[in-house]
Amino acid sequence: MSTGRSKLLTFGGAAWLACVAPVFSHAATYSLPAAPDAVVGETQQVVARHQDTLLDIGRRHGVGYEEIVAANPGIDPWLPGEGTQVLIPSRYILPGEVREGIVVSLAEHRLYYFPRPQAGETPIVKTYPISIGKMDWNTPLGLTQIINKRARPTWYPPESVRREHEAEGRPLPRAVPPGPDNPLGEYAMRLGIPGGAYLIHGTNRPAGVGMQVTHGCIRMFPEDIEELFKLVPVNTPVRMIDQPYKMGWNGENLYIEVHAPLAGQNSAEAHSLTHITRLLVSATQDRTVAIDWAKAEQAFVHATGVPEQVVLRPAAANPQPNTSTSLISQSSMSARP
Question: Which letter does DSSP use for residue 329 in this model?
């Protein structure tokens, strides 16, 4: 991690650490909770400096663009303003069912790594912000694995990417050597997807991390891919999922985490309050609790990506919401960096 001179600022009687020089965060690392618990981390409040953008603040705290913008509605991402309180969405509901290898959660623009613990070690999870495939260049879903790793890779743009750049008047060479013009950055890990063009890699344009902007690859901050590259062995399984709604227990409290649909998705059935209702009913079928349905609907409407507690209290019954009056839908590597 780079270091820089720092000072304490005060806001409302609280002390905050502000850095004079950029300090970039490595992965957030958490002890794995025992199943069925699935919530890790805590949200944070920080204070913006006059020169900050939300991108700057997010990178300092290991959060990408879409995450920090969604968590701070109404704040100008390019000029939040000195003294503005900014929420860092650093509480997460673990995605999927399998806590093994790498899980790429497309809806939240985030990668989770579950290293295999040694005997006597506490299981942990590391999580990083990522960029994913833009419209018409979707990052594929499913199970694959890391089949190759390369430091200082040469980029061989696929013909489809070269044609796109040619049409835009920005022709690409057949090979881009390592260096500042290489969009793969300093490290790349190839996925075992047919065609061999999908990578988890760094970037020479870190401002785009956390957005839906790639040609299908998984793009990471330079400091994050450097760390992950050294940790992940070849043959590590990689699961790529699209899970915009996550439910997770933390003791007796149930949390819901809602993300906006990815660009290009318009399935009213998948992205609806009805679907959230089904998931909440399934999550509580073995427990006697009362759900705060109004809060669940609010989480759906705002889609901040911040886990919200939706259990009211222990109860003898769990009445269902009146969905008839609820909002139901919202409307040397060759790779695609």
Answer: B
The runs of H, that is alpha helices, within 33-117 are 54-60, 65-71
Catalytic residue (choose from 61, 109, 215, 217): 217
Instruction: Specify the residue for token string 């490290």.
Output: 187
- pLDDT score for 270: 63
Q: Does the annotation count 19 as an active-site position?
A: no
Given the residues 61, 201, 215, 271, select the one marked as catalytic.
Answer: 201
pLDDT tier for residue 84 given thresholds of 50, 70 and 90 = very high
> What is the set of domains in the chain, with CATH numbers?
6-93 (no CATH), 101-153+187-241 (2.40.440.10), 245-325 (no CATH)
Nearest to 209 by CA among 72, 114, 52, 337: 337
pLDDT digits (tens, 9 = 90+) for 103-147: 999 999 999 999 999 898 999 999 999 999 875 567 888 999 999
Extract the tokens encoding 228: 């992950």
Active site residue 215: no
| Poorest-pLDDT segment among 11-25, 256-270, 275-289 | 11-25
